[in-house]
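Exam revision sheet. Question 4 asks you to relate a sequence to its structure. Input first:
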Amino acid sequence: MTIENIVLIACLLLLIQIFIPIIIDHAFTQKITIDYLFTSRDKNVENSIYFNRGKRALSNLLETFPIFISLALLSIFLEIDNTHLALLWLVFRATYFPIYILGIKYARSLLWGGALVCLILMGVKFI
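Answer key, structure tokens:
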């Protein structure tokens, strides 16, 4: 797998994480209705704990996603092989999301730390 493919899959992961909290609240808890999705959302809806966890996990991903994309693109342009670290980062982040939603706190922290170490090691390769 090339780093370009990993970047595309990471973008897909981002899109999935945007929609999963809404799907959870619509399909499983029925707290969000189809009608609500087509409104301007002026009224607040009480969301489930899983929705809120999903939104926090998404916010967490958005904090490091630009760093990952920057490092991956620099790796491509400067021809530095960060493929394995990028793939490992992707695995950590993809696993982090369901673990966060399920509330498994120590595993979540280990996965977050592993993803952070991957970013640091990707950056170190430029030195």
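Marking note for examiners. The mean pLDDT is 91.
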